Structures are given as structure tokens and as C-alpha cells.
Amino acid sequence: MLKDKIKAAFDEPACPTNRAKAAGERAKGCSKPLTPGAAAGGCAYDGAKISLQPITDAAHLVHGPLACEGNSWDNRGSGSSGSDIWRRSFTTDLTELDIVTGTGEKKLYKAIREISTRFKPAAVFVYSTCVTALIGDDIDAVCKHASAKYGLPVIPVHSPGFAGSKNLGNKLAGNALLDHVIGTHQPDDVSPTDVVILGEFNLAGEFWMVKPLLDKLGIRVRTCVPGDARYLDVAAAHTANVTMVVCSTALIGLARRMEERWGIPYFEGSFYGITDTSESLRRLARLLVERGAPADLVERTEALIAAEEARAWARLEPYRARLAGKRVLLNTGGVKSWSIVAALMELGMEFVGTSVKKSTVEDKMRVQILLREEAHAFEGMAPRDLYAQLKGGDADIMLSGGRTQFIALKARVPWLDINQERIHPYAGYDGTVELVRQIDISISNPVWDEVRAPAPWDTEGRLTDRHVSHFTMDDDADAADPTFAARHRRKFANSRVDNTDPEYLAHHRKKFAGHAADDIGDD
Amino acid sequence: MTDALSKVTHTQKAATVNPLKSSQPLGAALAFLGVANAMPLFHGTQGCTSFALVLIGRHYKEVIPIQTTAMDEVAAILGGADHLEEAILNLKKRTNPALIGVCTTALVETRGEDFAGELKLIHERRGNELAGTEIVLAQTPDFAGSIEEGWSKATTAIIEGVVPKGETRVSPERINILPGSHLTVADLEAIRDTVEAFGLEPTILPDISGSLDGKVAERWIPTSNGGVAVEDIRTMGGAVHTIAIGEQMRRPAEALKARTKVPYTLFDTLTGLAATDRFVALLAEISGRPVPARVRRARAQLEDAMLDGHFHFGGKRVAIAAEPDLLYAMARFFAGLGAEVSCAVSASGASPILEAVPAADVVVGDLDDFETRAEGCDLLVTHSHGRQASERLGIPLMHIGFPIFDRLGAQHRHTALYEGTRDLVFEVANIVQAHHVPRTPAELDPFRDHGDTHVGRPQTAAH
């Protein structure tokens, strides 16, 4: 039952928010009731889909009417080093007739057949949606049957949009992996340094900036879920020795259950920022050594960290002078805010605010320690307030997700995408340098000065004093010229300007004393 | 401008490889084609004419009226005056043009004849037969200059040949527009619309928007079909002001001012927000009218385009090869949106505007110089002959300038004023996005070279 699955997802002792609650509060789960008319953000289906879809060699089939998939596909930039099946969009695109006559299950079954024969995916993930959940399509049965018939794993993911928030969807996706995928494949190359990374999406390929660091230390990433993941590797995740959770709000529950079931210790870490990348490498090494990896791993890790940190700071040094004192507004919950805050503050940048909407209690505490002033951390801001703050010139740049992009741009304030739609990789040491480089590129773009300069006319289109007159009337030499043309030009000129203003006239005469009016621009 | 002057260098190669420039008489012919019922006449051999004619035809996809004095071996040795006379009389008889624009070529200029004197004699002898046809001379040898100079000289020749000296009665609503050769048909139409929106009457010289705009006529017209009327040119001295666009138009603007005392304002570019602001403000001042709402709306749209588009310019390295005024306009455009003009190649070295190009170095050279210097750039910006460099370097090409023969509609692209700048922003952003190549694990490997993370390629197109 969906209700049980949701309840299971909310029962999360590893979640610090959950732990902090009283028993009665905890029983209610963590779903915050949404406010009709004032809600923003994705649904549970959205959350489940984005948590699993970057599994690259699987087909992701959405069972529902068009909007759920048709309005959302191909909107994320995860990198794949192999198959591109995951980028194809599959949906049963239910029609009114399908829904009324209840032929949805049959359509789903046929869709799985078509996809499995034509595209030969390693597996098919089937996502339920509001409509198919409401009318009671039994996707478990269809998946089970199709799996047996066509000889490939078909995994039902129960996450209809009405179930709750995007965050809940993340958790439901994790549970689907636990129920149907992880532990179903036994690899023959298990080693004591195998690790699993959870909640890393390989956006813009950024995990490829981190993986070579682990390779160099002899740490093997069995699977990184979901970024650039292959189905069979995910299925073998239970053979790893350590789990690192990158995006804790998404998949921490999965990590805890993997510990319960297979005894794999986990920790929360981040690959954003220099110190956090180093700290994550350290913890991976230490936990692996505790689990039987060679003891020299710790020393080798420290040596690597020392070398890479030195290199990164050397590359960041040129930016210090350019960026010191720049004021950043960080408006995201999608990445580890504090990881970024720490990295940028070390370069002398200032934070005028950071959103902690999706952050855990621990995240919030770390942000507050870093920022010292509680006022800077906000839970969320209405677009109008955000616009007002930006327009008021409080920040030199806003780092956020695409949702608030245009608020910054309309306020004529530099903006950098640091969420899922972004195009630049920011992970690891190189990624931190890239982030700083992109901030510099954005802030130093001359476009800001140009678009901030008001037009030389008012709202009615009448010239203001910002317009320096360049229209040349013939100068004093013409004063004695009795020709009609000269007289006419003088008369015409006088009729257009306020010739009683001595300052204007003085300026006018001086400007065109040279007579040869040429480039009127000075920019 | 507060920018430091850029260093202008000339390459020292003996062999030009993949020429960037087109010839000077071709530029003059284009300018003459901007006069209604005109016929450019190349004083040279047949080939000079046919190559220019074919190349202009490839760009505009039109039949191009250009005639030749068809110099033969005897004329090459003894002089071409009678060929010139015969050609003019034949053209008058067969096509009765309002204006014949004589463009000299390298052959006759190498001989060094007195063309002006010859034309004077022809006029004296044949004045009656040639009544109703203006004959002007642009001395445009192929061994010097390029399109810009030819265009500038032809425009100057038209002014000096057609506009009478002395001041005339001024019409306060009339203004002259002297557009450079780098503006398109669409640009001229937009300039006209904008000027007219202020209640002003523009005389555009040359006006290729009337003649090279690509239209199907109901009858065969042997001369230029459209353009500025000779009668309108004759009365340009009655305008209240002249607006010249591009450094190349300083010479004709000066010539007009010297003859008629009409003052002028020279705009080094009309591409970009600030440049258009100045242009529009000048029109508002001349006309005494407020800026119309639709012009103000176009400005707001450009601002938004710049905000949305700047992501695709910031940090990008751009290579531009063009004639001086276009090179300057495009370099200013790219630099203004945060791109680095890391390679700037000019087709000719005479223009003072080159020193103002926002690039460290400006090389006067060819497309081979362009290709060797453009390596590692994100975008090539030049005319169709840049496609070889684009293929070999694997860098996308944005088509600008002349000739553009492997794309349709070059004459209808907007590149000036608010709309034109907006369209250019979108075009660049779309090229950048269309050529996005996702980064591979090898490219992102932190140990690959321990160099900079920037590999000179845009990464993705997700916006």
C-alpha cells in the first residue's frame, strides 16, 4: 500500500530533523502541509524521477497522462559515460478513453514490451502518477508479469504527485531501489576498497572531477547513485564497504537501511568546496581502513589532499583580489550551502544571505556558525521580496537555481546557476576553481553597466539631461552668415531647445566649437 | 572610448592564403547599386566585371546589373578612352540609366589614364545624347583597399557629381543618412523606419534596401531596381543634418558638408544598446519629438535579450575577421557582452577605427592568418569563406559580412539598432548552444594536465 510506503519513508531515525522532534511530532511524519495558492516546488513523482532517472542504461517509463513526463523531460544535465537510454522519454500518455475504460494496465504492459524489444535497456523503471494511482492500476502486478515475460528487471516506483513533496519522492525512490534493485546482483570482483556514493547526480559531469581522485587512492566507486550509474552496479551496491551520502535530504534513508541490512557504514559528506572535498576523502579512507583496507590508505589520502589543496589554492589566488568584498546572495537548498559558503568566504567574499529551506538542522547550524549572524539565513523568500532586495543593490551576485533566475536578471543583478540545470561542473578541487571562475566571469561582464544605465529619455520618451546634445547647429562662424540656410538652422535649433538656459547654451557652444561633429559617443 | 588603443600589425607574408577581402571596385559597384536606375560600369577587362558580378549574385541571389568597358589587348596598350565612351553611349542607348557609376580597375589604373579628363571630353562631345544620365567616377583600383574603400569612394563620387555646391533652402524635416557598406538591407529599412517614426524624412545614400532586397519584379529591369533617386540626392544640401554610419563614411560626409554646409554626426557603430541610445536621442533632438513607444519597447526587449544572452558570451573566446567598420562593430558587440575578442583580423589596414577595436592585437591579413590565430577559440565570426577554417578547427562559424553565399537571407538579417542587436545576441547564443558538446570524463579528469579547467569549449545548452 502506498500509505505504508510513505509511512516507511518518513520513519527516518538517521534524519537529524526527525531526531530532533518529540515522539508525537515524529509520528506525523515530515510532510509540511502545503499552502494552496502560495506553494512552489515539485511533487513526489518529480522527486522520485530525478532521483532515479540518471541511471543511464535503464528505461524510465512514466505511467500516466502526458503532463507528468511530457512537460518535464530532458531538463537536467547529468553526464553519462555510457548509454543514453536514460535521456529518452517514455510515457504511456494515457488518454481519456484509457482512463475511463481502464485499459491503462494493458497499455503499460505493451509499452514495456515495446521498449524492451526496441531499446534493450538493462532494466525498466515504471513510475506511477496521480491518475494511475487514483484509478488503481496495479503497476506491481504488471511489472512482475512483464519482468518474467521479457526477462529483464521491471521496477515499480510508487510516487504519485499527491503523495507529497519532491523530497518525499526522493525517499520513495530510494525505497524502490532497496526493495527491488540493490542486492539482486552479486559481482565477482568485490574488493575491500569498494564504496557507494549516494545522492550525487553527476551534473555537467562533475563527478568525473572527483572520481579520478578516488581512483588514484585505489578507492573503487562500485556505483554512484544516480549520476552516471549502470543498473547492474546499483544492483551490486550491497557489496560495498562504505556509503557516502552527498545529498542527505534525498537518500539518507537508503544509506541507513543499507547499513541495517548489510552492515555498510555511512557518512554524510560533500564534494563542494575545498575543505569539504578533503574532509570527505579523509572520512572515506578512514572508514575503509576500519573495514579492512590497507592502513597506508590514510597517509596516501593525506598526501593527495595536501598536493591538491595547494594546487587549488594557487589557482584560486588570482581571483582573490577580483572577488574579495563581493557580496553573494545564496538562494538554494539544492546543494550543500555551507560547502559553498565556506569556499567563497575563504576568498574574501561576503554573504548577504543564504536560504536554508531544504537544509537539515546540521546544515543550518554550520551555516550560522559560518555567517555568525542569524539574520542572514532565511527559510525562503517571496519573489517580490527577493526582487526588492536585489534591486536595492544588496548583492553583487545571486547563486541559485533556475526558478529564481529571472528575478535576478530583471533586477539587473548577475546570476549563476548552481542547481540541477546548470552547465558548469563544480565538484571537487577543480570544480571549486571553476565555480569561482564562473562567478568572476559573471560579475565582471560589462553587460551589467550597460543595462543598468537608464535610457537618455523619461517614461514619456522625452529627452532627459542624461542626453548630451550632439546635434550641431552651425557655430559662431555662421552668426554673421546672412544666408537663409544658416538663419533657418539657427532658428530651427532655437525652437527645439531651451535657449534661455545660459548653462545649456554655454555647453552647446563649447561642444560644437570645433564645428566638425564626429563620433558623438564617449563610452 | 577609454579603452587602450589596440596594436595594429600587418602580416609580412608574400603569399596571401584564403583572402579575406573582396576588391575595391566591387564595393564601389554595390554603392552605385544603391541608387535608383543606376548602372555600375567597370573600366577594365570583362573578367573584372564578371567575377564581381557573380560574387555579388551569390550573396544576394539576384541578377546584378554591372557592365564593363571590355578592355582588350589593343586598348590595354593604347588606352581605353574610346572603350569608356563606347560603353557609356551603349549603356545610355540600351538601358537609359539615371546614373552610370564608373569604377576603375587595376588594369586601367596601372596604365594611369586621366579618367576624369576623358569623361569631361565625352560629356563635351556627347552632352546631348547623355542628357538625363549622371556619370560619376570612382577610382577604385583592385590593388588597393577593399569593399569599404570602394563603397566610400563611390558614395563620395556620387555626392561630388550630383549634389550642387552652395547652400539651399533647408527643410527642417529632412535628414541625410550615409550608411556604411557593412549594414544590411534590413538594417537600412530599420533605420528608415526609426527616422520616420520621429516625423523626419531620410535620404539614404547609398540605399541598397531598395535595390538589393530580393524581390520579383513584374517586368525586366536592366538597371538597379530601386534605391535612392538621383533627384533626392541632388537636394541633399537641403537637409538639416547628416548621419554617417561607420568610419568609412567620414569621407562622403565631409564632402557633403564641404559642398553644402550640412553638418554631420558620425556613428562608429549602430550595433549595441548605448550606440542606439545615442542615435535615437539625436533623432529626438533633431525632431523635437519624444521617443515613440515602440522604439522604447524595442530597447527594453534588447535589454532582456542581453540579460538572457550574456551567459553564452561570458568567458568565451571569439575570433573575428572582417572589413574594419564591421570588425569594430562586431568586436564591440562581443566585448560588450563579456566575450574576449582573442583574434581580430582586418581585411584592410587603412582605417583609423582599427585602433579602437577592443582586442589586444588587430592583424591586417587573410583568412589563413585568421585560421592560425583562431585555434582554441569558441566561435569564428566571418563571411562564408571562413567555412574551411571552421571545418578544420572544429569551431562553429557565425556568418557576417560579405560574401555570404552558403546561407540564405544575409541581406535581411538585422544587425543594427535595438532589434538588430537583439537578433545578434540570439544568433550567437543559439550557435553556442547548438554546438554544445558535453564534456567527457577524460576532459574533466583533474590529473589530465594539471592546467586550467577551461578547455575552450562551451559545455552544455541546458537553458
TrEMBL record, chain A:
<dbReference type="GO" id="GO:0065003">
    <property type="term" value="P:protein-containing complex assembly"/>
</dbReference>
<dbReference type="InterPro" id="IPR000318">
    <property type="entry name" value="Nase_comp1_CS"/>
</dbReference>
<feature type="domain" description="Nitrogenase/oxidoreductase component 1">
    <location>
        <begin position="43"/>
        <end position="440"/>
    </location>
</feature>
<dbReference type="GO" id="GO:0016163">
    <property type="term" value="F:nitrogenase activity"/>
</dbReference>
<dbReference type="Pfam" id="PF00148">
    <property type="entry name" value="Oxidored_nitro"/>
</dbReference>
<keyword id="KW-0535">Nitrogen fixation</keyword>
<dbReference type="InterPro" id="IPR049939">
    <property type="entry name" value="NifE-like"/>
</dbReference>
<dbReference type="InterPro" id="IPR000510">
    <property type="entry name" value="Nase/OxRdtase_comp1"/>
</dbReference>
<dbReference type="InterPro" id="IPR005973">
    <property type="entry name" value="NifE"/>
</dbReference>
<comment type="function">
    <text>This protein may play a role in the biosynthesis of the prosthetic group of nitrogenase (FeMo cofactor).</text>
</comment>
<comment type="similarity">
    <text>Belongs to the NifD/NifK/NifE/NifN family.</text>
</comment>
<protein>
    <recommendedName>
        <fullName>Nitrogenase iron-molybdenum cofactor biosynthesis protein NifE</fullName>
    </recommendedName>
</protein>
<comment type="pathway">
    <text>Cofactor biosynthesis; Fe-Mo cofactor biosynthesis.</text>
</comment>
From TrEMBL, chain B:
<dbReference type="GO" id="GO:0009399">
    <property type="term" value="P:nitrogen fixation"/>
</dbReference>
<comment type="similarity">
    <text>Belongs to the NifD/NifK/NifE/NifN family.</text>
</comment>
<feature type="compositionally biased region" description="Basic and acidic residues">
    <location>
        <begin position="445"/>
        <end position="455"/>
    </location>
</feature>
<comment type="function">
    <text>This protein may play a role in the biosynthesis of the prosthetic group of nitrogenase (FeMo cofactor).</text>
</comment>
<protein>
    <submittedName>
        <fullName>Nitrogenase iron-molybdenum cofactor biosynthesis protein NifN</fullName>
    </submittedName>
</protein>
<dbReference type="GO" id="GO:0065003">
    <property type="term" value="P:protein-containing complex assembly"/>
</dbReference>
<dbReference type="InterPro" id="IPR050152">
    <property type="entry name" value="ChlB/BchB/BchZ"/>
</dbReference>
<feature type="region of interest" description="Disordered">
    <location>
        <begin position="440"/>
        <end position="463"/>
    </location>
</feature>
<dbReference type="GO" id="GO:0016491">
    <property type="term" value="F:oxidoreductase activity"/>
</dbReference>
<dbReference type="InterPro" id="IPR000510">
    <property type="entry name" value="Nase/OxRdtase_comp1"/>
</dbReference>
<dbReference type="Pfam" id="PF00148">
    <property type="entry name" value="Oxidored_nitro"/>
</dbReference>
<comment type="pathway">
    <text>Cofactor biosynthesis; Fe-Mo cofactor biosynthesis.</text>
</comment>
<feature type="domain" description="Nitrogenase/oxidoreductase component 1">
    <location>
        <begin position="23"/>
        <end position="432"/>
    </location>
</feature>
<dbReference type="InterPro" id="IPR005975">
    <property type="entry name" value="Nase_Mo-Fe_CF"/>
</dbReference>
